[in-house]
Structure formats: structure tokens, C-alpha cells
Amino acid sequence: MRRPTLVAVSGPPGAGKTTLAHALADALDWPLVCRDEIKERMAGAEPIGAESAEAGPAGDQDLRTLHAFFRTIGELLGAGRSLVAEAAFQDRLWRPGLEALAVPADLRVVRCVVDPELARLRIARRAADVPSRAVHADAELLRRIAAGERPIESWVPIATDAPCLVVDTTEGWEPSLARIVGFASGTP
Prior knowledge:
This protein is α/β, with parallel strands linked by helices.
């Protein structure tokens, strides 16, 4: 029996990860696990102002989300399912969980890159247009950018020996979705 494949779609904020991950999962007909979507569902399930006894203050919501994200991926891989997982996958925070999942699966990384100014515009647009984004740190991220910090440029990609494909999302996808699907599925 062939090992399942885990395709990790990664990149800095505003890089187009979620859009690409949805298109990739649809093209492959694989399940998609998006970290931000899990966080939004978890936040929607909690009464406003409530704090989980397990997690404490709102900052710990990120930790609960991280655990749910990796648990969901692990369950799908354990069932023999290949899947697409989307999150920032910044090295320091994400490598331990991702490396553990590479044991039962073939790991492939799709790293999204984008012009930082376009990323800032995307972040501002989604913060204004998508109410569920309120549970994320978009406002803080925009504040840091306005203050001259460079959070998009300082994003650190995950360091792994897994095959990696860099996708520029500045104008569509370069390389094409067909090429990204081929990479993800292990076909040339």
C-alpha cells in the first residue's frame, strides 16, 4: 500500500496560501486542512468573551488551534488519506509538528512567495471584507507594517529535507496549477 502524501502549503501572511491550497486540494480531490479555518470555527463555537478552562486567555486559542490542526492531519494520514494542509509553517513554530507527520507520510512543501506590498494590500482587504478574520492578528500585523517593521519579509520558511516547490503568487501562480498538482502528486 502506498504511503499517503502530505502537501504543506506555506508562506508569509498575504501570500495567497489559502486560495492556492483550495485550488490544489480540489484539483487532487484530496481533503484540505486549513489552520485559519480551524481557528475561525473554534472561535465561532465559543461564547463571546469566554475562555476555555483548558486554554485560558485568548492568546492560547492559537495553541488550541495548532493542536487541533495537527491532530486532524494526523487522523487523516492515519486513515491512509493524502491531503493538503495550509498554514504559515514558519520554521520555529511548525517544524516539530510537521516533521512528526512526515513519518507516516510523504511530505512535500509548496512555499508561496509574494511581493510584500501586495501581501499588505491583501491583508488589509481581507481584514475589511471577511468578518471571520477578526479572530486573527491581521490588525496587529498591519499596525506592525505601518510602524516600519517587516513581518512579511522576516517570515522564515520551514527547514526540512522534503521536496519543495516555490510558487510566486504575485500574478496568478508561477509555476502553473498543473505543474503544482504534478509536484504535489509526485508526477513529473
